[in-house]
Amino acid sequence: MSSRETILQRLRNRTGGELTVPECDFSVLQRPDWSTAERVDRFERMIESVHGEVHRCTDDNWMNRLAEILATRGARNLLVAKTHEISQSLRNAGRNDLPELLIYDEPVHSWKGHLFNEVDASITSTRGGIAETGSLILWPTVDEPRLMSLVPPVHIAILKASELYTTFHEAMKAQNWSAGMPTNALLISGPSKTADIEQTLAYGVHGPKELIVLVIE
Amino acid sequence: MVDTIRVYPSKPAKVYFYGTCLVDMFYPDAGIAGVELLEREGIEVLFPQNQTCCGQPAYTSGYHDQARSVAKAQLDLFPGDWPIVVPSGSCGGMMRKHYPALFKDTTDEVKAAGIAGRVWELTDFLLNVCHIKLDDLGEPTTVAMHTSCSARREMGVAEVGPKLLGQLKNVNLVEQIRPEECCGFGGTFAVRHPEISGAMVSEKVDTLVEAGTKEFVTTDCGCLMNIAGYAEKNQKPLEGQHILSFLWARTQDKGGQQS
Amino acid sequence: MSETAEHTDHHIDVKQFHPRAQAAIQNPKIRKNFRSAMDGLMSKRKAAFEGWDLETLRDLGANIRMRALANLPDLLEQLEKKLTENGVKVHWAVDGDEACRIVRDICKARDAKTVIKGKSMVSEEMELNHYLQEQDIEALESDLGEYIVQLADETPSHIIMPAIHKNTGEISQLLHDKTGTDLSNDVEYLTASARLQLREKFMNADVGVSGVNFAVAETGTLCLVENEGNGRMTTTVPPCHIAVTGIEKVVPTMEDLTGLLALLTRSATGQHITTYFNMISGPRKAEELDGPEEVHLVLVDNGRSSIYQDDELLDTLRCIRCGACMNHCPVYTRVGGHAYGTTYPGPIGKILMPHLIGLDEGRHLPTASSLCGACGEVCPVKIPIPDLLVRLRQESVDGDKLHPAKVRGHGAKRSTMEAMIWKGWAWMHASPGFYRFGTGAASKLRALQPASAGAWTDYRTAPKLAAKTLHQRMKERGQ
């Protein structure tokens, strides 16, 4: 008998009594229906409490803010998606205050060393955010691959205020996640950090040292 | 672990007093203080002379057959419908929480459940059933309270001791750090793992002394003999007594006569 | 078995709990490191749940886990089906050795020489690192705490904070000795230096091995909770990702994650959420530019299906590995994680390990508790840990052949002498007349009470018998 069958058989033929299947009431996770402004406030507070940055912007000025952020950090380049509108607008802006734009358009194995060692910052979109915990929802795609938000030391994310949900539960229901998930999805709630050395927080242990969110209001 | 809803009965004419074996042999003054407090509230105290031990030592040691035979000998002590009061969170917890499990699927199941539902930790009973009002006649003093883990977590009466002590106008109640941390008694744990238990009680004594008190009161005699016994052996400036002894003494005239 | 003979040499003798506990208690550095760490974790947890209806939330957590366990075999099959549809290869292992061999075979098939690991307690259970080393496969831990512990050739002393037994100075010295990092008390510097060393490893590793916090059956999704990003690196950068998990980790729905995640991170470290919550549902698709080409899931039983047989012990399997029970345990705080000598230390270890190693090997585990109940009070899924400790005590002293053995090593701790003492005790306390006679006589003879009472009086004075028992005094009062 295979291990699979052995295990399943042991579980199916358990000696104890019938197991009850309790009801699960998720209403304890509900929060009052915050206004967008309240959600942005809460989101900002939560991200800042974990060493992240939030910049409130508009469709018209986010690129200015981005340029400032990158200039302050002396970023030599910015990793962008191939076709996403964020990438398109940056490339079409023809600005000279932005660093070199690197496009993630090749499989990672062909430029892994460069990605790990030479890229200073990246910018990605999000699938919304969660106000309660200060979280960004990312579903990496062919256009915006997984490592964009992980490898460069600075990750900048664009979040539309209108796509900010109150709770994880609300976000998941609204986007109908139970119908199927992409190969990779994640919540990001701050820069990479560790407290493994005597509970002292240190940032950027493996992922980005900085998480900067541009909230488009 | 604590029942979410507890409905207190109205004040009864009589109660059964379940003294517990530690009170019986080592701290009978605490038992008598409890009886006096109840009587002062106008309650007649019934003391079944055939009571021995709730069975907990054997139960927590894993000897459930032995625990059951001892517990079974307690089941017929309370024929009337009166509440059963216990000057201990630990023995109270055994009777209220563990008797139903211990007698599950036996012929005594119903009887055990009936008794469990009538068991009250005595300070809880004084405060929430008798609505006791304490008139402090003692000299100003400072004490700390140590609520036993079973009083806190099985009986859910952590608020009771401080409330009662709060009624005493000349008593300054100081809070120890980590009041919810175990003193290290744990019954047979103290002798099976003496070094761990010793480390726990030594820190407990230190935190009590650091809280700025030379005196502590507690709901349970196990904690009392552990904490006070450690302090005595190691010459720490700390003495303890059962909260019932303390409450009774504070509300007496110097002559020991009540008005 | 011969394949893993060496591998078992690494085992710590769990039975030597007492000497290890004593040594830890007498080590001021260990005492201080754990006390301050546990104080910090307790207060952070408390703050994180402020404003929550915690009892109701814990009820939800318990119900989610109970519902999953009630349908465990069906859910595992559903999970396997979904994952397979998503392109993930699912393997089943009855024990740790088989799980190790599965990982090895996947590595060999890819001619893999280096494995980078994310944090996984199941892989600790399997002792995977040592096994792979014997197979000439380098296995490197990438979680900073696990990395430190691995450099020191130790095991984790806490399931969430593996290196919590060490202070900054000790870690600095270790990194200096093993990796040439300059000595420093600057945690940022030490962290940055580990980052540099591990980045190289991530780039070049052939395989990534991770654990799983929750596996969702309805979508075939493997979830990982982490702060460092090493979990993401491990599961994204190498061309092959192997996830290992206990069979109990499956939940039916995505919605279940919301309740469990809310509880897990707050209970563990007092965080509202961790930096990363990874949801992996398959390998990279042809058109994708990164992610592993192969994803495997190894479902490990290793004693869990035995625990599953018993209605009471089953509750052990609700555990979501938050570590709150150890953070709040006064015993764990005093002796630290290594004293237990087991993969999982603290209260959860005391109720889980006896199933994995047997009650003979783990004889001291269930008794090393004052039954204070702090663990059960904070458990996010309401595992009645103190009750289960009592149950395992019963299992370990039970000599009654009528009771079927539910745990390996049933009755291992039974001694005829101890059983006789309890029988005598029971007889006296079930006989009120003898009880009154005995206690009354003891009171009369109290002048003869010995000052020493075994281990009790090593630390305390003996309680003093009263002149008269309560029974006698009540009788005198006419009651």
From TrEMBL, chain A:
The lineage of its organism: Bacteria, Pseudomonadati, Pseudomonadota, Gammaproteobacteria, Pseudomonadales. It comes from the Bacteria. This is Lactate utilization protein. Residues 41-216 form the LUD domain. SUPFAM superfamilies: NagB/RpiA/CoA transferase-like.
Automatic annotation (TrEMBL), chain B:
It comes from the Bacteria. Residues 16-96, 143-227 form the Cysteine-rich domain. GO terms for molecular function: oxidoreductase activity. InterPro entries: Cys_rich_dom. Pfam families: CCG. GO terms for cellular component: cytosol. This is Oxidoreductase.
UniProtKB/TrEMBL annotation, chain C:
Residues 310-339 form the 4Fe-4S ferredoxin-type domain. One of its GO terms (biological process) is lactate metabolic process. The keyword ATP-binding does not apply. Keywords: 4Fe-4S, Electron transport, Iron, Iron-sulfur, Metal-binding, Repeat, Transport. SUPFAM superfamilies: alpha-helical ferredoxin, NagB/RpiA/CoA transferase-like. Pfam families: Fer4_8, LUD_dom, LutB_C. PROSITE patterns: 4FE4S_FER_1 (PS00198), 4FE4S_FER_2 (PS51379). GO terms for molecular function: 4 iron, 4 sulfur cluster binding; metal ion binding. This is Iron-sulfur cluster-binding protein. It comes from Marinobacter guineae.
